[in-house]
Amino acid sequence: MGTTIIQQGLIFMPLLKKSIKDNWKLWAVITAAITGIITLIISVPSITDRSKLNAALGASGVSFAGQGLTMLYPMFIVMLASVYAVVTANKLIAAQVDRGSMGYVMVNPIKRNQFSVTQGIFMAGSVAGMFAVVTAVGSVGLALTGDAATIGFFVLLNLGCMLLLFACSGVAFLASCIFNRSGPSLAMGGGIVIASFLLSFLSQLEEYVSFFAVFRYTTLHALFNTTHIAEPGVSMILDFSILLLVAVICYIAGAVFFKKKDLPL
């Protein structure tokens, strides 16, 4: 399928290679940071008696490492990955228009839809690659520390986090395609992502302020509920499907906006 897309001219390979070259350092730093934090959480039980820790948490059905990951992902992992998504999405489109680099479109045999589709595929692909690396390293770590039973939960956790970042990067990509300046692009893309992040935490206080319950159904981050993922028998299909749908809509809308808008070339 990928070969067919390239043959049909929707991916401009020189641009894809340029995007990889321009953004791999930030990707590597964020991926290494996430992997390092997760490795630390996974290795903590090895310092003590893992069997006693897991026995103490047996009622929850999740190991000590699993409990740590459940608390870690909604804040630190999501935050780090969101920084990459927002910054990179802005660099791919709006920042290039802002500094006058969009002449690339005029002096090369590349159409606007090729440009936006190529950048969108790089954005989504880099997020997928990030969580593929994190999942592989973390799974090996769990296996080596005798916690193989947690691997299934860990994979599902990363699947949900990846879909959340697909949605967040889609929002940031849409903002980058709409605006010709980095400032408004970052304000909209980063603002929506940060607002969703903060409001999802307010939704956890609904027992104290009933109004906060509305944020449980109106924010992207609330759909990535690690507590529900850890609970046996709780289906995340609907939540994950909504995140994927939001991502697809935002990426397509971004490409449409970019194709139709005026560029200050």
Which helices and strands appear, and what pairs or packs with what?
Elements: H1 2-7, H2 13-47, H3 50-56, H4 64-92, H5 94-98, H6 103-107, H7 112-144, H8 151-178, H9 182-202, H10 215-218, H11 226-230, H12 237-260
Helix pairs in contact: 2-4, 2-7, 4-7, 4-8, 4-9, 7-8, 7-12, 8-9, 8-12
Number of strands: 0
Backbone shape: globular
Share of helix among residues? over 70%
Low-confidence stretches: 1-7, 46-61
Most strands sheet: none
Précis, in short:
The chain has 265 residues and is mainly α. The protein has 12 helices and no strands. The model is unreliable at 1-7 and 46-61 (pLDDT under 50).
Q: Can you offer a commentary on this structure?
A:
It is a single chain. The protein is built from twelve helices and no strands. The longest helix has 35 residues, at 13-47. It is globular. It has helices spanning 2-7, 13-47, 50-56, 64-92, 94-98, 103-107, 112-144, 151-178, 182-202, 215-218, 226-230, 237-260. The chain has one domain. The model is unreliable at 1-7 and 46-61 (pLDDT under 50). With 265 residues, the chain is mainly alpha-helical.
